[in-house]
C-alpha cells in the first residue's frame, strides 16, 4: 500500500495523515511486478526522510511502536519482508543479539536495513549496548549513512542519562582527534560533540526516594548519615533545628578556635533549617573548575535540597549537569600532566599529596568515578595514600578515593563537610588511646603527641610510616607469650586485672569509640588485640631470648612478605598491602569513616598514553571471558575497566592485591617458585596447590589473549601476580601491528619462561600438560565463537589512525590466527609447537635483558 501511494502521488501532509485515514485496502490493490521492483530500487537508494513529527512518533520511548506504526516503520518492514525475508526473521527472533545487530549494521550497505537496525537498538537493554559504544561512536564518525540512523538513538539516550552523555562526549573527543588532523571542516560528529557538551540534549533528572529500611515506621534512606554515639537523637534534632544558620556558623567557628567568614563552602554544606526552601537562599557564585574556591565541582543545582517524604521530584533548573564530573576528571588529569616535570619520585609523591589536599577542599561533591557502576558520591581523597607508579617518561599515579553509597547521585544529600585536621587528630587519638593507657609513660605520650602533629602537618613523616607498619604488621603477634590462650581465658584475665584510671577526656573518647565499633559491628584487628593482651602479661611472665629468636626465625621463613617503602619505587609497598587492611586503616583515620555507607575505591590516572588500545583489549577479553564461561573452559582472565577521557589520557581500574613480577623479584630477592613457597606454604599444602592451579589457568588464558591480539612489551613490569596466584597482564598499548619503538622484538606467540614452568612443576609435570590442554580448549572455544570477537576489531579498524592498525590489514591476520582450516588434531599439534617455541624464544630473553639495562626491570 505504501509503495503504491508513494510512487503515484506526493506524500500528504501530516495533518491529513493523522486526521483522515486513506481508505485503501490491501486486498483491492494489484501491483504490477516490474513497477514494484522499480519503486523498491528507488526507495533502497534514497532513504525516506523523517519529519520532526514522524521522528517523535517513531522513536519516542513513551509511545508503543507496535500499536502505532508509522509509514517509515511499515516501509522498512515491508522492504525487508520482500527483499530479505531471512534477515527479517533473524532480526525478529530471540537469537538476534546485540553483537549480531552491530555486525550487520556495519556490514550492510542498504539504507533500509540500516534504518531498521538503527531503530532495533531501542529494543535492547542499555548496558548491553553501552559495551559497544566505542564501535557505535567510530561508525558515527566515519560512516555517514550509519550516523544518520543511529543519531536518534544516541541523542535519545543522552537526554535520558548523564553517564551516557559523558561517555559519548569523552569517546567522541578521543576518536575525533585523529580525523580532525586530515578533515577540512567539521562533520556531524563534531557538531554532536558540541551539542552534548553544551547540553542541547539536557538529561531529564527525576528522583523518587528508595525505601531501604522500615523499622518502627521510620524510613531510612541508604545515604542518611548515622549518629550512633548519641543516646537521644530526637532531642538533638530538635535542638539543632532550633538554631539559626547564623548561630550554627558561629558555634562551629568557636569550636575551631578562630573566627572564619561565612563562605560559599560552608553555605553549601549546611542543612536546610526550619523547612527553608532553596528559593529563599542566596544563590552562590558558580565556580566550576576553580580549585581554590572550594566549590570547583558544584553546579549550584538546589532542586533536590529540600526533598522530604517520598514525592517524585524533577530538576527544573538550568544548572550544567555534565560539568561537575568533567571538572573532577580534568583536575585529576591536570595533576598527572604536572608530575613528569618534577625531578625525583620522592618529590613527585610530595607534589601529588599536596595537589590531592587541594582537591579535598572541594569535596564532598556530586561527582563519581564512572567505571564503578554503583551510585556513589566522592567525599574525600586519601591524599597520604596517593602514590606515583613506575614509568620512565611519564608519571601515572594511583589514588584512593573515599565514597559514600547513595540512592541517586543527583538528589541524595551530601554528607556535611568535616574539618580535615581536627577530625583526623581526634580519630588518631581514639585509635591510640589503648596504647597510651597501657604504657602510662610521659615519653610515650610525648611520642604520640608528636605523631599527631606530624600526621596533620608533615605528610611524609617517617614516624607515621613506622607506626602504621607496627600496627598493621602481621608479625606483631610474635611477642605473645601464650599461644594457647582461648578467648574465655583472655576475658577472665582482663576481668581480674583492674584497669588503670582513665582521664575524663580519654574516658569519654574511649567510650565513644567502643560505642561506635559495637554499633557498626566492626571487627577489631587481631594483631592489635594480641599486642594489647600480651602487654598485660609482660609484668607477670618473662620471655626467654631463645624463644624470641625462634619466633623471629619462624616469621622470616613463613607467611606473606611485607615490602619496605622504597623512595625509588614507593608503589611496591602500597600495592603489596592487603586491600582489607588498607580499607580498615583509611576508614579509621577518615572523618567520614563513621558513615555506614562509606566505601573505598581506587583509580589509576594516566596522561600521555593512548588508552584506546587498552579499551579495545578490554572489550576483546570481556567477550573471551563470556565465551569460556559458556563453554566451561576453566581458565582465568581479568579484564580491566578503562575510562577513555581523550586520545592521550584516561583512568584505569587497578587490580587489588596484586603486584608486578618485577616488584616481587626486586623486593623479595627470591625466584618465583621460592616466592610461591613463601607466600602459599609447602609444596603439599592445599593453599600452595590451589595457587599453582590458579597460576596455570591464568597463564593459559593470557597466552591465548597475547597470541590472538599479538600483545607485545611483555616484560615483568607488565605482568602482575595476585594474592591467589593468578597471573594478570596489564598495559596493552602495543598489540596487533604495533611494537615498542618498532624494534621487532618478541617474535614468539606469547610469553612463557622457564620460571613459569618451574612453578608448574617442570616440563614433565601434570600441571605443565594441563597448561597446554587449557590453551587448546580455549582456542577451540574462541574459534567456535569467532563471529562475536571479529566485529569488535573490524569496526574499530575502519577509518582509525591507531598505531595497532597502522600496518596492513590486521583483521585478516587476526582471522588467520583462529586457524579455521585446521582440524582439532592439527590445532593440538600447533599448540605444542607454539608453547615450545615460546619457551625457547631467544627474542623474549633479549627483550627482557634490554628492559633490564635500559629501565632497570628485573628479568
TrEMBL record:
GO molecular function: 1-phosphatidylinositol 4-kinase activity
Superkingdom of origin organism: Eukaryota
EC assignment: 2.7.1.67
Keyword line: Kinase, Transferase
Pfam families: PI3_PI4_kinase (PF00454), PI4KB-PIK1_PIK (PF21245)
Biased composition (Polar residues): 518-543
GO biological process: phosphatidylinositol phosphate biosynthetic process; phosphatidylinositol-mediated signaling
Domain PIK helical as annotated: residue spans: 1-196
GO terms under cellular component: mitochondrial outer membrane; rough endoplasmic reticulum membrane
Protein's membrane topology: Peripheral membrane protein
Region described as Disordered: 250-278, 481-549
Domain PI3K/PI4K catalytic: 580-843
Protein known as: Phosphatidylinositol 4-kinase beta
The organism of origin for this protein: Rotaria sordida
Amino acid at each position: 500500500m505504501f509503495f503504491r501511494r508513494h510512487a503515484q502521488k506526493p506524500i500528504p501532509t501530516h495533518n491529513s495523515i493523522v486526521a483522515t485515514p486513506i481508505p485503501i485496502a490491501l486486498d483491492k490493490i494489484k501491483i504490477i511486478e516490474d513497477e514494484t521492483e522499480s519503486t523498491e530500487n528507488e526507495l533502497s537508494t534514497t532513504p525516506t526522510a523523517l519529519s520532526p513529527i514522524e521522528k517523535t512518533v517513531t522513536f519516542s520511548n513513551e509511545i508503543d511502536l507496535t500499536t502505532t506504526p508509522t509509514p517509515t516503520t511499515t516501509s522498512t518492514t515491508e522492504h525487508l519482508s520482500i527483499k530479505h525475508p531471512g534477515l527479517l526473521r533473524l532480526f525478529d527472533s530471540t537469537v538476534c543479539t546485540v553483537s549480531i545487530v552491530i555486525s550487520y549494521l556495519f556490514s550492510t550497505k542498504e539504507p533500509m536495513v540500516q534504518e531498521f537496525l538503527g531503530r532495533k537498538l531501542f529494543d535492547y537493554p542499555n548496558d548491553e549496548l553501552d559495551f559497544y559504544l566505542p564501535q557505535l561512536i567510530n561508525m558515527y564518525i566515519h560512516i555517514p549513512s550509519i550516523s544518520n540512523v543511529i543519531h536518534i538513538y544516541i541523542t535519545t539516550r543522552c537526554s535520558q542519562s548523564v553517564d551516557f552523555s559523558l561517555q559519548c562526549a569523552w569517546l567522541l573527543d578521543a576518536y575525533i582527534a585523529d580525523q580532525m588532523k586530515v578533515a577540512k571542516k567539521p562533520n556531524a560528529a563534531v557538531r554532536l560533540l558540541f551539542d552534548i557538551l553544551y547540553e542541547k540534549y539536557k538529561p531529564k533528572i527525576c528522583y523518587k526516594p528508595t525505601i531501604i529500611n522500615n523499622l518502627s515506621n521510620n524510613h531510612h534512606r541508604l545515604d542518611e548519615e548515622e549518629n550512633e554515639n548519641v543516646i537521644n537523637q530526637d532531642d538533638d534534632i530538635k535542638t539543632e533545628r532550633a538554631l539559626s544558620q547564623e548561630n550554627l556558623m558561629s558555634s562551629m567557628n568557636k569550636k575551631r578556635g578562630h573566627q572564619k567568614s561565612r563562605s560559599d563552602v560552608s553555605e553549601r554544606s549546611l542543612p536546610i533549617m526550619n523547612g527553608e526552601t532553596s528559593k529563599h537562599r542566596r544563590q552562590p557564585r558558580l565556580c566550576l573548575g576553580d580549585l581554590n574556591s572550594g566549590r570547583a565541582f558544584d553546579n549550584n543545582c538546589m532542586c533536590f535540597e529540600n526533598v522530604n517524604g517520598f514525592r517524585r521530584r524533577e530538576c527544573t533548573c538550568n544548572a550544567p549537569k555534565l560539568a561537575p564530573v568533567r571538572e573532577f576528571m580534568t583536575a585529576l588529569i591536570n595533576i598527572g600532566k604536572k608530575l613528569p616535570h618534577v625531578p625525583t619520585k620522592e618529590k613527585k609523591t610530595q607534589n601529588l599529596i599536596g595537589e590531592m589536599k587541594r582537591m579535598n577542599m572541594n569535596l564532598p561533591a556530586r561527582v563519581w568515578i564512572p567505571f564503578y557502576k554503583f551510585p556513589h558520591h566522592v567525599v574525600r581523597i586519601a591524599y597520604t595514600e596517593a602514590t606515583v607508579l613506575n614509568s620512565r617518561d611519564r608519571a601515572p599515579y594511583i589514588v584512593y578515593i573515599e565514597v559514600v553509597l547513595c540512592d541517586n547521585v543527583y538528589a541524595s544529600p551530601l554528607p556535611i563537610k568535616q574539618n580535615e585536621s581536627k577530625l583526623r587528630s581526634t580519630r588518631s587519638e581514639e585509635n591510640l588511646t589503648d596504647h597510651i593507657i597501657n604504657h602510662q609513660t610521659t615519653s610515650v605520650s610525648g611520642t604520640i603527641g608528636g605523631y599527631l602533629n606530624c600526621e596533620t602537618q608533615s605528610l611524609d613523616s617517617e614516624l607515621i610510616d613506622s607506626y602504621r607498619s607496627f600496627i598493621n604488621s602481621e608479625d606483631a603477634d610474635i611477642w605473645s607469650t601464650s599461644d594457647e590462650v582461648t578467648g574465655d581465658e583472655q576475658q577472665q584475665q582482663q576481668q581480674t586485672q583492674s584497669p588503670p584510671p582513665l582521664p575524663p577526656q580519654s574516658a569519654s573518647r574511649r567510650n565513644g569509640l567502643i560505642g561506635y565499633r559495637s554499633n557498626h559491628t566492626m571487627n577489631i584487628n587481631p594483631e592489635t588485640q594480641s599486642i594489647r593482651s600480651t602487654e598485660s602479661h609482660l609484668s607477670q611472665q618473662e620471655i626467654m631470648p631463645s624463644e624470641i629468636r625462634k619466633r623471629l626465625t619462624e616469621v622470616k621463613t613463613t607467611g606473606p612478605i611485607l615490602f619496605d617503602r622504597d623512595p625509588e619505587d614507593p608503589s611496591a609497598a602500597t600495592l603489596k598491602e592487603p586491600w582489607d587492611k588498607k580499607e580498615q586503616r583509611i576508614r579509621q583515620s577518615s572523618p567520614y569513616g563513621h558513615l555506614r555507607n562509606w566505601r573505598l575505591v581506587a583509580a589509576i590516572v594516566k596522561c600521555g598514553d593512548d588508552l584506546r588500545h587498552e579499551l579495545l583489549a578490554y572489550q576483546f577479553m570481556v567477550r573471551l571471558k563470556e565465551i569460556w564461561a559458556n563453554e566451561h573452559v576453566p581458565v582465568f582472565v581479568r579484564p580491566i575497566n578503562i575510562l577513555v577521557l581523550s586520545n592521550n589520557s584516561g583512568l584505569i581500574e587497578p587490580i587489588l592485591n596484586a603486584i608486578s613480577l618485577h616488584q616481587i623479584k626486586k623486593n623479595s630477592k627470591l625466584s618465583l617458585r621460592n616466592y610461591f613457597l613463601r607466600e602459599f606454604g609447602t609444596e603439599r599444602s592445599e593453599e600452595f596447590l590451589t595457587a599453582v592451579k590458579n597460576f596455570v589457568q591464568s597463564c593459559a588464558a593470557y597466552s591465548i589473549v597475547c597470541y590472538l591480539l599479538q600483545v607485545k612489551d611483555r616484560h615483568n613490569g607488565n605482568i602482575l601476580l595476585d594474592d591467589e596466584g593468578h597471573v594478570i597482564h596489564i598495559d596493552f598499548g602495543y598489540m596487533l601491528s604495533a611494537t615498542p619503538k618498532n624494534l621487532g622484538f618478541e617474535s614468539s606467540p606469547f610469553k612463557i619462561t622457564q620460571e613459569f614452568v618451574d612453578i608448574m612443576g617442570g616440563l614433565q609435570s601434570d600441571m605443565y600438560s594441563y597448561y597446554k590442554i587449557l590453551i587448546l580448549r580455549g582456542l577451540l572455544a574462541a574459534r567456535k565463537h569467532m563471529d562475536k570477537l571479529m566485529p569488535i576489531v573490524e569496526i574499530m579498524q575502519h577509518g582509525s589512525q591507531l598505531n595497532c592498525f597502522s600496518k596492513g590489514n590486521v583483521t585478516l591476520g587476526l582471522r588467520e590466527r583462529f586457524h579455521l582450516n585446521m582440524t582439532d588434531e592439527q590445532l593440538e599439534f600447533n599448540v605444542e609447537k607454539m608453547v615450545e617455541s615460546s619457551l625457547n624464544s631467544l627474542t623474549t630473553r633479549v627483550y627482557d635483558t634490554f628492559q633490564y639495562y635500559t629501565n632497570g626491570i628485573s628479568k
